[in-house]
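To: structure subgroup
Subject: Chain for Friday's discussion

All,

I'm putting the inputs and outputs inline so they're searchable in the archive.
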Amino acid sequence: MFLEVTCKQPRIYLRFEPRKSGLCQTLRVQKVTGNDGRAAHRVLVLSTTAFTLLFAVWLMLGVLGVAIRGELRLNGVQFAWLTSIAVLSGSIFRLPIGILTDLWGGRKMTIALLLASALPCYLMSRAVTYQGMLICAFFYGLAGNAFAAGIAWNAAWFPRERQGFALGTFGAGNVGASVTKLIGPALLTLTPAAGYLGGAIPGGWRFIPVVYAVALVLMAAAVALLAPRFDRRPGSGRPLASMLSPLKVMRVWRFGLYYVVVFGAYVAFSLWLPNYYTSVFKLGLGAASLLTALFIFPASLLRPLGGWLSDRFGARVVTYAVFVAMALACLPLAVPQLLGLAPGPGSGLVSFVVCVEVLAIGMGIGKASVFKYIPEYFPRDVGAVGGLVGTLGALGGFVMPLSFGYLETLSGRPESCFWLMLALVVGSFAWLHLTVTSIKRTVSEAVLPATSEAA
């Protein structure tokens, strides 16, 4: 059994936990001052930095996959599986990791994920077969689950009125997807194919996984040394059935669909756009990577703005606006003849990039607004609910690139990826609107009888 007390003035967090010592029980008191103090800000800075690195590792094949595709002569479906397999393993464990973070604390889970990703990331640099690369990608893809740990960790340290901004700031670590896009082409050019130290450090694209593996170990050491040792564990002592009970609520699954639109699609296009630019618009890898980074920046860095807007105007209003803007941007991408965006070298590139940027802005703001719902509706179950919503969104990032590949193969139309995107946006908007309409009708029906009785 345990007791938790939070005092507002000053903000003091006390944790009373009985511990057995021989035949007696002693009481351990855990005191952390300042929900908005130094400890909370250290958690935010460390978790965001770690998440940025882990996200860069998770999606590094968005650029490296293009070089690997040429090296192994992969077809479209093989390439889609190679870039998607890490997304799968970075998705399916988010729910248990979110729960474990509530039970054990974010510090321990973040360190574990950093170290667990380091070895397979290094081994990726040594893989020489397609099957070997798939196995390494699956295991270093565990890095993607860091989102569930970080969301639960920060939610435990920040008060409700500041959670939108805090979670949005942490989520901006999505910008890690642009790291490989920015440094990858340069390193591929500058690093000798033979590598360094007689091949002990490999060259070419294989040099990048080695750099990331070293960075992961160093980041784990930083979190171990700098994060607050007395962590907050809101799920400690609660039975598992109690923590999982909110997953029966349909609202949670609806939030998951929203997150597929704003996050799953973001992951999918971060992986798909470099190949789209090189194959459709015939751009070089450097230019394609830069344009993809321009997509990633607003889709990541605007997340704090989305959190602030959600704190001020409410998650529902912001999510409404996001879906409308994304639908308007997606329509000409799905039907390129509307704005002369017919795919081809030099054809409609500027208009295409503008529409993609609008999509990115919507994703950046929408990722924060969707997650703002969670602590509002499920304040005691952020780990479990955030884990499931994150799982569903990330699974969308796994399924969508595969769907893009199959759609293009079947239709012969490269813009078919935006057909799927438009359908998801319109479907999510429709569900949101129907839900809001139903809520308003229910409230109106409840108010009218009361008004009549009062009259």
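Points worth raising on Friday:
The chain has a mean pLDDT of 82.
Residues 4 and 15 are 5 Å apart (CA to CA).

D.
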